[in-house]
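Standup, Tuesday
Yesterday: got the pipeline producing structure tokens again.
Today: sanity-check two examples.
Blockers: none.

Example 1:
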Amino acid sequence: MRPFIVAAVAAALGFGAAVHPAKAEYPDKPIKLIIPFRAGGGSDGLARAVQAAVDKHDLLPVPLVVVNADGAAGTVGTRQVLNAEPDGYTLLQIHQEMFAVSALGRVEYTPADLQPVIQASESCLFVAVPIESEFQTLEEFLTYAKEHPGEIKQADDIGSSTHFPSAQLMQQADTQWAIVPTGGTSKRFASMKGGFTDMALMSAPWLTKGKNDLRPLAALGSERFDDKPDLATAKEQGYDVEGCLRRRYWAPEGTPPERVAYLADVLTKALQSEEVQTYLDRNSEDLKILVGEELQAAIDADYQSYLDLADLVKQTSTKN
């Protein structure tokens, strides 16, 4: 029986409300924000700051619940969102680690299988060597790497989002070096300090945390760091390389546009709050809000850069 006939019959019998209950206003239940990394990391930190701002300023009529789903380079949590109902009650916050695993063919999904909601922030990396290293400049380092192929060892996560700008730097300098699987930035720092590796890409807070043990050779953003204005970018030094992590929010594909817009508005207000700005400043991240077509264009260009470098990343993924 067609739906309008069922409705008419139900109304005639006096129980239309039972068949078609009044629709609740969105949102009417908690919204889950999945962080596909461990608690206490950078992604988790931003999510907790956003959650606190939402609560403090009553930006949602329901709780925003942060859930950590760590595992397999972010794929465990990402799959939870891919498989969630596209109803506006599940969100994912992730940086380009999703692009890395997709570009390398380690997963069957791509960014196109999710609905982008908003870009929140950007945090750029820098090239670092141990303080006792013989290399005083980026040019010295790359010249040595070119003259001694395979001798340099870089501390990193093989196939990670930081491996890609490393491969781009190798490509620009027409050389290759070894990637040693160490883990996150604190483990990279320990590896360099212990003399096991010669170089790493480090996140901006390590300009301060590692100032007595690391020598920065180049900033990997489009501009110099505000708190390290004397550190030239790789681009200024003749190498067209960028290494910045951009934290973005995503919803399941098929989420209604009006709900995506609603969530983007709520998150924009939270990100612009004093609490979140304080968090970003403390962690050397910049507020870089993008939505709509501008966001999609940035994602497309970003992902394409990962696809362009995928083969080189695979070539430099041999464990040493």
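Example 2:
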Amino acid sequence: MPYIEVNQQRQPTNQLLLPLIELVKQRGLHPDKALKGTKLFYDDLKKQGHNSSFKHLIQVLQNITHHHLGQDVSFVLGQHMLHNISAQYAPYLFHCTNLKSLLVTCNQLQNCLFPYFNARMFRKSQTLHFVLNPAISEIPAFANKFLLEVWLSMVCGFLKWRLPDTSIAFQLPFPEPEYAEQYRAFCHQPLSFSQHFAGFVVQRTMMNSLQTGAIEALKAPLCQLQVLPQPGFLAHIESYLIAHPKASQDDLANYLNISTATLKRKLALHNSQFGYVKDRLLSQKAVFCIQEQGYSNAQVARLLHFNDLPNFRRTFKRWLGITPSELRKV
């Protein structure tokens, strides 16, 4: 199977789940309470080579949200993951001479570094826009926020450490929280909240920013990695739908070599539907074309293969809750 599903135990437990359990344990929460409902045992998590599933992670995040463990748990976890992953993948990351080379390497390693999100890129003459989509399964809002904070802490920590003169604008799809001081303490980069999608924007002038102490000749080729992890289920089908924007649900099922009924069941297992995935991809492209490229409604409608303008406007409002004209005023 060329992708990872939500209930498959194929995620290294020591990457995120075990450090999370250890962190909340230090803050007074017994591991058994954090692991309630997962059928996992704390002692087993510490065994070398232990794997867990994305479903396990979501259950643990749901369990710990009911306890007062501090508003910095996600950010501290991100710092731990930064050092853990940096040590594991140093030969591939630390010798990228500039930001451009680093982004290319991170794209190739994204299933190793942070397999819970998948980055989609849009290009503009002066900027590169990256949108983060769920890679394995649709993510409940509370868990999505937590994982975005972990990811943000990791990335910003790396930038501060290895590319201190680089500025990247991060966008988050939820209102500014009451504990915004945690973002300022751990992130040190431009942040904007209440955005339509999670992601970040890089000025092309920043792509040549040099990484501290990088020696390109020491960079290890990715072929040295024995096995690159496979993408998540949603990331796999989204890559197909981006390449084949007119594809139907039957087309996608044929591509996956399963029946349409099985595809529907798989999507439901991952808390999604074919129309929802396709709407997300189309809405992201529409927002980029309107906000960043200044396209007219007619241009966007043609690009997205809509038959008429009224249908495009109605669909756009269903996607985002506002009309294209209202988006232009933001």
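Quick observation on example 2: Strands lie at 11-12, 51-52, 117-123, 127-134, 169-171, 191-192, 199-203. The mean pLDDT is 95.
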